[in-house]
Design brief:
The chain is an alpha/beta fold and 392 residues long. The chain folds into 2 domains: 189 residues, Glycogen Phosphorylase B (Rossmann fold); 189 residues, 3-Layer(aba) Sandwich (Rossmann fold), CATH 3.40.50.2000. Helices cover 48% and strands 15% of the residues. The protein has a 7-stranded parallel sheet.
């Protein structure tokens, strides 16, 4: 029996939230493991009582420095009091004086992205720039202070190795197609209505809350180009609203919203807002193509969700996108709306290619497994416990 302690306080959106949603149920099924999860109220509320898993809740506080200081002072006492043998830090920052062996899950590509730092400077968002630089320093120091650092893809692991000068292991995040599509809860009524209204359109989907690095602006600029090339109505469905206060973080939506105004006039963009995760599979299957223009990424769960739903993928040409999708996607230079439009046009005009990509995507999605991910994570944890025992 191994006793784990997961620090999941920072997992409140995006990939971190998806990670805990999927890993916690798999850990609950393991009779050879007892897991304590330190989380915010959002994560705790999603789970009924589970075997082999207990939760500790902690209130969230704004500010990376306060969060870091609090974790460094509070966590060691909680870990020792709980009798845990291994800490899994799931929020990019390690516990610097950890009383037990530690696995750091590093998944934030913004700290290593020159594109992102240039982008926020060009927007005049110097507060975001400064915060990213500070977090990046803490993240790099964390890699040097943990026993094992794990990245969710080989592409991002290689980037972290270059950036930190330390060894970083690649361990793909998983996917469970049956669990993803198991819930029969339908889409919200407003989403169903919007899809029905788009019955005669080419329906594109992009699943993300608004932020800068997902590169919404390039996608928006591509839509009118695409509409002219295929001579058909285009509908882009978004799982967010372009209002700053309705998205996590402090990203300002004004520039994207201004670009979207013209698309709204032609009814080419549909802001659905947040779609419950359990209903999301219905939205994928209601669309024709999945598009991802992100210029920074460490894994990209929506790509696998899209492939599992049978959607061909058009993605920005990042090493991680090619690693995840392989031959199930078409790729374009990350800041080129013209090339994005060209790849979508190519798929629209070639149903045979779209079908080939769809079949390839189904095969590729089946190669990702949360059970395998948890097996390998526990294997790493056991090796650390054994090494600690031999040293003592």
């Amino acid at each position: 029996m191994i006793r784990l302690f997961i620090n999941g306080v920072a997992a409140n959106a995006g990939g971190g939230l998806t990670y805990l949603r999927n890993v916690i149920p798999h850990l609950a099924r393991r009779s050879d493991c007892q897991t304590t999860v330190l989380s915010n109220a959002l994560i705790r509320s999603e789970f009924d009582p589970l075997p082999n898993v207990s939760f500790m809740e902690i209130s969230e506080n704004a500010g990376v420095i306060w969060r870091f200081v609090r974790e460094q002072t509070v966590l060691p006492k909680l870990i020792l009091r709980n009798g845990s043998q291994v800490l899994i830090s799931a929020g990019n920052f390690a516990l610097w004086n950890c009383p037990v062996p530690q696995i750091l899950l590093s998944r934030n590509s913004l700290y290593t992205s020159n594109d992102f730092l240039s982008d926020v400077r060009s927007r005049g968002d110097y507060a975001i720039w400064a915060e990213t630089v500070i977090k990046g320093w803490l993240a790099r120091q964390s890699i040097s202070r943990t026993d094992v650092t794990v990245a969710p893809s080989e592409a991002f692991a290689a980037e972290l190795r270059r950036w930190s000068g330390r060894n970083v292991l690649a361990l793909h995040h998983g996917f469970d197609a049956e669990a993803f599509a198991a819930d029969t809860i339908p889409l919200p009524a407003h989403a169903i209505n919007e899809i029905e209204r788009a019955d005669d359109a080419l329906r594109l989907l992009f699943v993300s809350h608004y932020n800068y690095y997902r590169n919404f602006e390039t996608l928006f600029r591509a839509i009118p180009i695409l509409s002219k090339r295929i001579n058909k109505k285009v509908k882009l469905f978004l799982t967010c609203r372009l209002k700053s206060e309705e998205n996590p973080g402090i990203y300002r939506t004004e520039s994207a919203a201004a670009l979207a105004d013209d698309l709204r006039g032609s009814e080419s963009i549909v802001e659905l807002g947040t779609i419950p995760y359990r209903s999301l599979h219905h939205l994928y299957r209601a669309c024709h193509l999945y598009v991802s223009p992100a210029y920074a990424e460490s894994f990209a769960h929506p790509l696998i969700e899209a492939m599992s739903s049978g959607l061909p993928v058009v993605a920005s040409d990042l090493p991680v996108h090619r690693e995840i999708c392989g031959d199930a996607g078409l790729y374009f230079p990350r800041l080129s709306p013209d090339d994005l439009a060209e790849q979508v046009t190519h798929l629209h005009k070639s149903p045979e290619l779209a079908e080939t990509l769809s079949r390839s995507g189904l095969r590729r999605a089946s190669e990702f497994s949360w059970r395998e991910h948890v097996d390998r994570l526990l294997g790493l944890a056991r090796k650390l416990v054994q090494s600690e025992s031999e040293r003592n």
